[in-house]
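Following up on my earlier message about magnesium ion. Here are the inputs again, as you asked, copied directly from the submission form:
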Amino acid sequence: MIMGKKKTVYICQSCGYKTPKWAGKCPECGEWGTFVEEFQPEKPSSKRPSISWIDTSSEKPVPITKIEKIQKERFKTGIDEFDKVTGGGIVRGSVSLLSGEPGIGKSTFLLQLSDKMAKYGKILYVTAEESPEQISLRAERLNVKNSNLFIYATGNLEEVKNIVEQMEPSFIIIDSIQTAYLTVIESAAGSVSQVREGTAFLTNLSKSKGITTFIVGHVNKEGNIAGPKVLEHIVDAVYQFEGDRGYNFRILKSLKNRFGSTGEIAVFKMEKMGLKEIKNPSQFFLSHRPIGKPGSVIYCGIEGSRPILLEVQALVTRAAFGTPQRKAKGIDMNRLSIIVAILEKELGYPLRNFDVFVNIAGGVKIEEPGVDLPVAVAIASSYEGKPVKKEIAMFGELGLSGEIRGVKLEEVREKEIERNSFYSIRNSLQKNNNKIKFMKEAVEISLEALYGEYNKGSG
Ligand code: TYD
Ligand code: MG
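Thanks, got it. Here's what our run produced:
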């Protein structure tokens, strides 16, 4: 290879934006301090992965009625909750990204998955982070001992390709993409170029040979998969582990799935012998709930297509000085500000003098508006120092004048609430069989005792 003058380029490690000159702020995604100098590959990577299941090399356009529908073969893993998330099993030849913070359980899960998948064929588990001894110790702990499971320690993806050609596995696991590299790319492992090209390389390998592939990807502190967004476009499915390290349960969410619906979740518990599926997450999430304490509300949310009961917690305390604090964990900060403003206006709470903290128990992240009402009632409960009646559960979006608005899948939620022996506040009979329409009514009905005295918020 003739080594010409190497061209360098600055690449935003957040979104992949390229610029010949260093910049402090990325003009594309607005992040600061994300530009890193990388070598420009000698030639643009030759082959882009074929991301379509239809043969893209067809010579001429095909009438839509003539396209053969290929029923893709799926592998059922036997981990029922995971099979549901994948949409009925992992599709043969698909490439999935498993992301999550370090230490959340990605390697543990994939080892357990390998044990289940080994009945379908050989598995090549490439470890670029841990030694084979470490994997073996983990396997012992998980009681995984399958002769169809092969461990290979390397970060070199060209080497992986050679091994794959010799061994012809049915499955490949790459743990992790941030520690894997292609020697033709000069930047360090973990850089945007390596992560992106490495994923494209593996996708090509997988699609050309019909091998089902799992790639582990760490997420950065903002919760994004390290590396550019394009990574998500290359693969067929993205599954993300979420959960608070302080708790031992883990939520696996499908962020993208070409072969199923997205947003589906499975709940696992991390135990001494690996991850165990939780079949009734609602009961599980409520098991540590403090009964009779102000600031705790049961919320029925929707994750993917399934309802789930969760605990919303709020703590309202008198602010020491200056600007009061607003902290939200598991819900959007902007929503919290709006809810606080609605409470000030509609209930007359002087919350500008109080700190407000809101948390979704268990580290679950809620992205749907149905959490508004439970958050509002939890804040009211903490402020008033009055617990919410223990049999009540709720959901609902709040409008700016405190009206409760409809949300998706209300009937499904009502059923889940009933199934777990709670009653939905929306159907409360207290208002002559009419549905409650305003947040104010919801607060009145939910709290244990009549309210009236303000400034009960401890402080
Ligand atoms: P790991 O799978 O190594 O996380 P990741 O690959 O995402 O970085 O999981 C590490 C954590 O899980 C570690 O803190 C130990 C814990 N663990 C258990 O509690 N039980 C087990 O059976 C195993 C294997 C790990
Ligand atoms: Mg790991």
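One observation from looking it over: The two ends are 72 Å apart (CA to CA). Hope that helps, and feel free to reply on this thread.
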